[in-house]
UniProtKB/TrEMBL annotation:
Record EC number: 2.1.1.244
Protein name, UniProt field: Alpha N-terminal protein methyltransferase 1
CDD domains linked to this entry: AdoMet_MTases
GO cellular component terms, A-Z: cytoplasm
Record carries keyword S-adenosyl-L-methionine: yes
Length: 105
């Protein structure tokens, strides 16, 4: 799965659909996708998750050196979170989308 995601992001970047400056990881959990997919490809990664405990664990999981490139960490539900308009080059929603029902859209 990781390789498919890397390929997708690189194809989008190569077609100049977006830059590599800032990405938002929605439903980031402890930061697995942030660490292994997004930090290698973007200069700054912001994270949002509803669980304070996941956000707290993420600093240890990601590691001190890589964590320097993590920007904002938001503890909020995606139901209410509103990212700033035109701020992110990419908004990544991977595992959390499976938790949403038709009513959420």
């Amino acid at each position: 799965m990781l390789m498919v995601c890397l390929e997708l992001i690189n194809r989008l970047k190569n077609t100049l659909l977006f830059n590599d400056h800032r990405v938002l990881d929605c439903g980031c959990g402890v930061g697995r996708v942030t660490k292994h997919l997004l930090l290698p490809l973007f200069r700054r990664v912001d994270m949002v998750d509803f669980a304070q405990s996941f956000i707290e664990i993420s600093k240890t999981y990601i590691g001190a050196e890589d964590f320097k490139r993590v920007g904002q960490q938001y503890v909020e539900s995606l139901h209410t979170f509103e990212p700033a308009e035109n701020f992110y080059d990419l908004i990544w929603i991977q595992w959390v989308s499976g938790q949403l029902s038709d009513d959420h859209w």
